[in-house]
Amino acid sequence: MLTVPENFPPAYITFLEGQDEGFAETVLMVMKQSVAEGKYGILVSDQAVDRQAELSQEVPFGEVVEGVR
Hints:
By secondary structure, the protein is α+β, with helices and mostly antiparallel strands. Helices cover 36% and strands 30% of the residues. The protein has two helices and three strands. It has helices at 10-17, 21-37, and strands at residues 40-46, 51-60, 64-67. It has a three-stranded mixed β-sheet with strand order 2-1-3. The chain is globular, with a radius of gyration of 11 Å.
């Protein structure tokens, strides 16, 4: 079960709730980095084989955007 820090933006928590546990654990690491820096949001990209999450200058802090990179 994931332990989500209390200081996470609401959009991060909502996103994590809709994911399977394996992917949520991966995204959680990126989200912790985002919160620590307080600058960028999260871009979740769908690749042909799997999904990836990364910090993105194009996404405002506290938001999660899904798309294809």
